[in-house]
Write a structure and sequence with these properties.
- The protein has a two-stranded antiparallel ribbon.
- The radius of gyration is 21 Å and the shape is globular.
- The longest helix is centred in the middle third of the chain and has 34 residues.
- By secondary structure, it is an all-alpha fold.
- Helix 1 packs across helix 6 and helix 6 runs antiparallel to helix 8.
- The chain contains 14 helices and two strands.
């Protein structure tokens, strides 16, 4: 059954011109921004911005850049889903014998594949940038920071599952995309303004966005020019060291939101006609 679902979704998705256009645009924009940023010449008294594209910092940097374009993946998930309603392919598949759960599972396969694509794109790009930009190479530097790849996978899932949920609610491409964009700004920011800082930090859009923090450009750039006498905390003493983000906690909360989005989609699919 899994192979059947993958074959059906593969035919519908890969031959959809808008899908190829958005995926091409996503990859192109990401690579252009990464290339331009990596070639910025900013060297003052030994401070080099391009260090963030060396191992081990390149994984955080590229995951952060890739997160800018996750909205495109969310919009793509909306378009793929709303297309099913507008062309009545969901209804046809039900008549052909698929269950409602199988329709949802098939869409989840597509979303997981797109999240894997985003992760692989960052991995290949990070490998190329890291090798070309790093003056030295060690396995320790290569491995350090790789945790940002599965974190980006989870973040991409979060954006697309939210898009899937909104698509199931509105069932119209234009309305769904507008609602999706408005939720990120200004709807949730306005809601967060009336909440305590602790509670606001765990709102869906905020939590998902926080998975890929901005690299500590100043701390990384200064690491070559500051002498660390004991092998510890000079950067922390001057206040430029990056604060490690609570990736585990934020990832768990995001996974929880993904499950909630999926459950709500399943409930909507079970109780509404296609």
């Amino acid at each position: 059954m899994v192979k059947k679902l993958l074959a059906i979704e593969g035919r519908k998705t890969l031959f959809y011109p808008t899908f190829r256009t958005i995926i091409g645009l996503h990859a192109l924009l990401f690579l252009i921004v990464a290339l331009v940023a990596s070639n910025i010449n900013f060297n003052i008294e030994g401070i080099r911005i391009d260090k963030v594209f060396q191992f081990p910092h390149v994984w955080n940097t590229l995951a952060w850049i890739a997160s800018w374009f996750n909205l495109l993946l969310g919009i793509l998930a909306i378009m793929l889903t709303c297309n099913e309603f507008q062309l009545r392919t969901f209804r046809k598949q039900l008549i052909d014998g698929l269950t409602r759960n199988e329709l949802i599972i098939a869409k989840l396969f597509v979303i997981a594949s797109l999240a894997a694509y985003a992760m692989i794109l960052v991995f290949i790009s990070g490998l190329l940038f890291g090798i070309t930009k790093s003056s030295t190479f060690s396995l320790t530097d290569f491995v350090q920071g790789l945790q940002f790849l599965p974190v980006l996978f989870v973040q991409s899932l979060g954006y697309m599952l939210l898009g899937l949920l909104i698509a199931f609610i509105f069932r119209n491409t234009a309305f769904s995309i507008i609602a999706f964009m408005l939720y990120f700004f200004p709807v949730e920011p306005i809601i967060r303004a009336f909440m305590s800082d602790g509670a606001a930090a765990f709102m869906p859009a905020k939590t998902i966005a926080n998975l890929t923090p901005m690299p500590d450009f100043v701390g990384i750039s200064l690491s070559d020019v500051i002498q660390i006498s004991n092998g510890t905390g000079s950067l922390e003493m001057i206040g430029t060291a990056s604060q490690s983000a609570p990736l585990i906690t934020t990832s768990i909360v995001t996974i929880g939101y993904c499950l909630i989005f999926g459950i709500i989609v399943k409930l909507i699919a079970a109780n509404k006609n296609f």
